[in-house]
């Protein structure tokens, strides 16, 4: 199930049943009216304008409640938990850290009439009616999700502020069979296993939500899922807008490349690698199902490798500390040895001795203009256990100040699949031969626009 943001433009919401439904969303009617006459409509959208409706079950609430408790704040975040049945005695009373609960309406007659193949979808859509019935005053957005959802409320407020909540054409979501406004920060997570590769190369968009947490490994390998959720929120509570945002840096004297995912991880590669490649997630995860043919994902991935020049040293988020009103220090520590020899290229140096990395960016939102690059300090362990600094690292930002970062940031690397009907439909040969790669350095020196250049390269590759 995915997160859905719905503007409450209706003065009345009700369910209606059709004889031969093709889409469950056809059976919920919204009568609209403008709310611009209300006093609060002239202000900017803030957290008080959001109401969350989360659907869960008494069986799963035992182990899913830490996800909700990690981001819900009493008397600040308006959240209602809808359980399928009344809580059993072992769940009562709910702790103050849990949001107030309600029991979902009995929609068995609705399910019998529409005969929908996914009853949980009907319950989710009907949940919009229940939340609307519960809370109407001053609401601009109703946000629906499951009880395995993590929401990043500050980022949601920022993003929803860019939409007109008085209009009928907005529903922010992914994965549903209706017209929606897509957003890169909404993660349905139809993946399995270790998703650290995705988190380490997150797209340049605010992280809004995470779902299906029970189907993936814990975010941090030394913690369980509940502990991981709380640990990730330590960074989010300081600066949500920067969470998982990628910064790429270089240590030229050592021929090292750094990929920083703020609040989650730092990767060190013992080789200078273009930004265009480091932005592609490592395929540490598995697809939701192997029943489909490749490509399995809606984004490019980099395969895992035994090449020490292409395999990163991984450092996980450990702690965060606000230095002053302008700077915040995050620490990343090595969880385990990489277990590989050093990169054998001439002039490259081993990063095995690095034990910790400190990052000190200014406290500003990533889309704001920053006068200086973030500082990344590399720390190694010397004999006797003492720390020794290896110096600062040049980081590539929008206003690139490092010449090497500028050159690497101007490299085009693009992968796509080209169909070949002459090959058998399910053959391995098709999956291999249909993968096309375009790699072009110093794209900033070409006179053609990016779109014209890309179109020409794709045509040449397929010809």
Beta-strand segment tally: 23
Helices, by number, come to 10
Given the C-alpha coordinates, what overall shape results? globular
Structural class based on helices, strands and sheet pairing:
alpha+beta
pLDDT < 50 runs, ≥5 residues: 11-40, 369-373, 397-401, 421-432
The tally of domains stands at 3
Largest sheet: 9 strands, antiparallel
Average pLDDT, rounded to a whole number, is 76
Beta-strand residue percentage: 25-35%
Protein topology:
Blueprint (H helix, E strand, L loop, with lengths): L3 E3 L3 E6 L12 E5 L17 E7 L4 H9 L8 E6 L17 E3 L4 H7 L4 H16 L6 E6 L3 E2 L1 H8 L25 E2 L3 E3 L2 H4 L9 E2 L14 H12 L9 E6 L4 E6 L3 E5 L5 H4 L6 E3 L25 E10 L5 E7 L19 E7 L14 E7 L5 E6 L1 E3 L6 H6 L3 E6 L10 H6 L1 E6 L9 H13 L1
Parallel strand pairs: 4-5, 4-7, 5-6, 9-11
Antiparallel strand pairs: 1-7, 2-3, 8-11, 10-15, 12-13, 12-21, 13-14, 14-16, 16-17, 17-18, 18-19, 19-20, 22-23
Any overview of this molecule?
This protein folds into three domains: 4-183, no CATH class; 244-401, no CATH class; 412-462, no CATH class. 18% of the residues lie in helices and 25% in strands. It has ten helices and 23 strands. The protein has helices spanning 61-69, 108-114, 119-134, 153-160, 196-199, 225-236, 275-278, 403-408, 428-433, 450-462; strands spanning 4-6, 10-15, 28-32, 50-56, 78-83, 101-103, 141-146, 150-151, 186-187, 191-193, 209-210, 246-251, 256-261, 265-269, 285-287, 313-322, 328-334, 354-360, 375-381, 387-392, 394-396, 412-417, 435-440. A hairpin with a 5-residue loop joins β19 and β20. α1 runs parallel beside α6. The chain is globular. It comes from Tanacetum coccineum. This is Glycoprotein-N-acetylgalactosamine 3-beta-galactosyltransferase. InterPro entries: DUF604.
């Amino acid at each position: 199930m995915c997160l859905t943001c719905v503007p409450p433009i209706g003065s009345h919401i009700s369910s209606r049943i059709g004889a031969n439904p093709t889409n469950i969303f056809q059976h919920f009617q919204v009568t609209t009216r403008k709310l611009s006459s209300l006093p609060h409509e002239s202000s900017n959208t803030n957290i008080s304008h959001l109401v969350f409706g989360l659907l869960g079950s008494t069986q799963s609430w035992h182990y899913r409640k830490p996800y909700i408790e990690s981001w819900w704040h009493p008397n600040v975040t308006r959240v209602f938990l809808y359980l399928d049945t009344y809580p059993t005695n072992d769940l009562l009373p709910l702790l103050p850290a849990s949001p107030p609960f309600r029991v979902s309406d009995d929609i068995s007659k609705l399910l019998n009439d529409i005969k929908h193949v996914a009853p949980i979808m009907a319950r989710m859509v009907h949940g919009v009616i229940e939340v609307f019935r519960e809370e109407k005053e001053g609401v601009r957005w109703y946000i629906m999700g499951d009880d395995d959802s993590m929401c990043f409320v500050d980022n949601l407020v920022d993003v929803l502020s860019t939409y007109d909540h008085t209009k009928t054409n907005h529903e922010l979501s992914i994965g549903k069979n209706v017209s929606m406004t897509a957003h890169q920060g909404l993660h349905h997570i139809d993946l399995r296993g270790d998703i650290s590769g995705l988190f380490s190369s997150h797209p340049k968009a605010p992280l809004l939500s995470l779902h299906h947490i029970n189907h993936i490994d814990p975010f941090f390998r030394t913690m369980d899922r509940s502990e991981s959720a709380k640990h990730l929120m330590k960074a989010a509570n300081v600066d949500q807008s920067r969470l998982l945002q990628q910064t790429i840096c270089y240590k030229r004297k050592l021929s090292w490349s750094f990929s920083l995912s703020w609040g989650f991880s730092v990767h060190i590669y013992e080789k200078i690698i273009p930004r265009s490649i480091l932005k592609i997630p490592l395929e540490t995860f598995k697809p939701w199902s192997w029943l489909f043919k490749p490509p399995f994902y809606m984004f490019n991935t980099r395969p895992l490798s035994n090449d020490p020049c292409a395999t990163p040293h991984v450092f996980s988020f450990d702690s965060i500390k606000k230095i002053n009103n302008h700077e915040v220090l995050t620490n990343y520590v090595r969880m385990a040895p990489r277990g590989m020899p050093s990169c054998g290229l001439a002039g490259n140096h081993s990063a095995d001795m690095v034990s910790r990395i400190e990052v000190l960016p200014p406290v500003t939102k990533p889309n704001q203009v920053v006068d200086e690059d973030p500082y990344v300090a590399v720390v190694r362990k010397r004999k006797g256990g003492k720390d020794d600094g290896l110096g600062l690292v040049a980081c590539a930002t929008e206003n690139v100040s490092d010449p090497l970062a500028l050159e690497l940031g101007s490299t085009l690397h693009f992968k796509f699949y080209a169909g070949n009907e002459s090959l058998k439909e399910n053959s391995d040969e098709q999956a291999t031969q249909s993968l096309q790669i375009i790699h072009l350095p110093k794209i900033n020196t070409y006179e053609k626009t990016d779109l014209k250049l890309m179109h020409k390269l794709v045509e040449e590759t397929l010809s």
